Write a sequence for this structure.
């Protein structure tokens, strides 16, 4: 029904809720050869086996994703990687996410008190990152995660921010950070560090260069 | 007091949207969930609200419905970046060539009082960072009124009463609602953002009943 025909065989499916930050991120020449927008309402009809990884960004439609639960776990069972950022829903994820106030100004008022206080920098996504590059702000926390999950990041209250599990076949990585949406918004200037490491982890190749925007992509028909 | 306006809010299932548009004496809201196949009738509403974080693939699918709604005199409020071409006569463009830290919001023209009682520094600053989150800019229709612009004179909030028979109130992805968006907990910013929205609601309410009376 609806599809983005502008991409060239990227290996990462970015589940797309029609939100402009998802679009601006995937359309940026830096990332467009890595990420394929898959409109969330087209997801049930999409063959995910064509992709190495699936990304579910913040501001997704978790009601629709709940109806795709089997498809997502079949993808994991086939050895794929699934990355979930921001909020999530227990309708399809065996975890409980709760909202919390967003502190996006800590770096001005309390630069020595970042929202994340513990990070496992041995994880491939976090290797080589400065602490500030590993957290800009968080959107809530996980109050329950699967028993088999490894915890990668916690906030100062000890709550879970980022976790990972291999128990479903492939690797499921979930975080309440929002690298894809914030990078699409382009108001935090240092996110290339995190997103490029994440992209390399998702598909094995690392993007290079600066995030550019082509004005011609705006006002253009999706159909 | 006249009856409240009836508003439809497009809802694509994102977290945090519920609660941003509480009923008031001026406006009552219904959620319109994004779903396919599209079976949508918005003709009974006075106002169509497309909030921050909306689905613009869906909006392009209902472009004809929106045009018919405007042709019948409806009011469209889009407080998001419409990257697909569904808004008649006006275009939103994303841009990252300017630094957020350098953005200052400025009033250009305010014939309808959107900025009445608003401390614009509540938009400029929140806890030492930006107090609002406009992104990119609008390329407006020739006769649209530019209410707010940025440091580089790029339109960020406009009113267009000429491109269609209805009214379009458009922001460059700057969130506006009767509550605050979760990007700030600074009281000055909360008051400014909610204050602009309430002024817009009062304008829409007054315009409808002035029109019916005439």
């Amino acid at each position: 029904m609806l599809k983005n025909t502008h991409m060239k065989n990227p290996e990462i499916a970015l589940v797309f809720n029609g939100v402009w930050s998802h679009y601006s991120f995937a359309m940026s020449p830096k990332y467009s050869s890595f990420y394929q927008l898959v409109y969330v309402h087209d997801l049930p009809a999409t063959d995910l086996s064509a992709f190495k990884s699936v990304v579910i960004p913040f501001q997704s439609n978790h009601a629709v994703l709940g109806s795709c639960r089997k498809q997502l776990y079949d993808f994991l069972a086939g050895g794929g990687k699934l990355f979930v950022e921001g909020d999530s829903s227990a309708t399809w994820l065996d975890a409980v996410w709760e909202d919390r106030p967003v502190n996006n100004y800590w770096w001005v008022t309390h630069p020595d008190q970042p929202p994340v206080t513990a990070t496992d920098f041995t994880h491939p996504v976090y290797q080589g990152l400065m602490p500030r590059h590993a957290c800009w702000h968080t959107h809530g926390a996980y109050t329950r995660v699967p028993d088999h999950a490894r915890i990668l990041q916690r906030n100062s209250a000890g709550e879970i921010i980022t976790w990972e599990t291999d128990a479903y076949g492939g690797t499921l990585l979930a975080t309440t950070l929002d690298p894809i949406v914030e990078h699409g918004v382009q108001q935090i200037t240092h996110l290339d560090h995190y997103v490029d490491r994440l992209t390399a982890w998702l598909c094995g190749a690392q993007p290079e260069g600066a995030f550019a925007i082509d004005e011609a992509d705006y006002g253009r028909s999706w159909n | 007091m006249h009856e409240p306006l009836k508003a439809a809010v497009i809802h694509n299932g994102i977290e945090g949207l519920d609660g941003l548009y509480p009923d008031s004496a001026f406006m009552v809201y219904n959620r319109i969930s994004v779903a396919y196949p599209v079976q949508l009738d918005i003709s009974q509403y006075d106002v169509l609200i497309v909030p921050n974080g909306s689905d613009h693939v869906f909006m392009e699918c209902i472009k004809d419905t929106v045009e018919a709604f405007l042709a019948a005199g409806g009011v469209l409020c889009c407080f998001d970046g419409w990257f697909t071409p569904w808004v008649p006569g006006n275009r939103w463009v994303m841009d990252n060539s300017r630094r957020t830290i350098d953005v200052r919001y400025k009033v250009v023209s305010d014939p309808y009082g959107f900025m009445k009682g608003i401390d614009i520094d509540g938009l400029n600053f929140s806890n030492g960072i930006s107090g609002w989150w406009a992104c990119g800019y609008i390329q407006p229709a020739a006769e649209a009124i530019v209410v707010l612009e940025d440091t580089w004179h790029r339109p960020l909030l406009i009113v267009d009463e000429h491109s269609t028979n209805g009214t379009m109130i458009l922001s460059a992805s700057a969130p506006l609602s009767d509550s605050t968006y979760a990007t700030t907990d600074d009281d000055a910013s909360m008051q400014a953002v909610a204050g602009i929205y309430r002024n817009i609601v009062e304008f829409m309410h007054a315009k409808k009943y002035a029109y019916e009376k005439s």
About this structure: The CA atoms of residues 76 and 168 of chain B lie 5 Å apart. Chain B has a mean pLDDT of 92.
